[in-house]
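This is your field. Pick holes in the following sequence-structure pair:
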Amino acid sequence: MSKMDTKDFFIGAVVGGIIGAASAILLAPKSGKELRHDINEKAMTAKEKTIELTNTAMERGTEYSQIAKEKTNEWSQAAKEQWDKVSDKSKDLTEKFTNKGEELLEESKNTVNDTIEEGKELADKVVKEIEETKDKVSQK
């Protein structure tokens, strides 16, 4: 229940109690002096009950407020811890992917350089064979 619902409930209970007590007193056959005495007693009883209920409601409200604060702090701390774990994991994965990317880039660079070198060697062989073939043709 919210604060307003609790407050409304207690106000309704007190007002209902007062109306019920007043109705019972007024409908009972008594003299004016006895009736005033009874009304005064019931009013004092209602006032005491109202004070008692108000104090109880305030105590419970304070207790519930404290519990809510504690739970909020606990949940906030738990959420922060979870976020820190996720953040750390994300940083680790980013670092791993970055390192892996650098490794792949270096491997690709080496592969390209090796391929270029092999291409040069092949080109040199082809040029040499063309020259040898050219020499053979010119000797005939």
Summary: The helical segments are 3-27, 32-139.
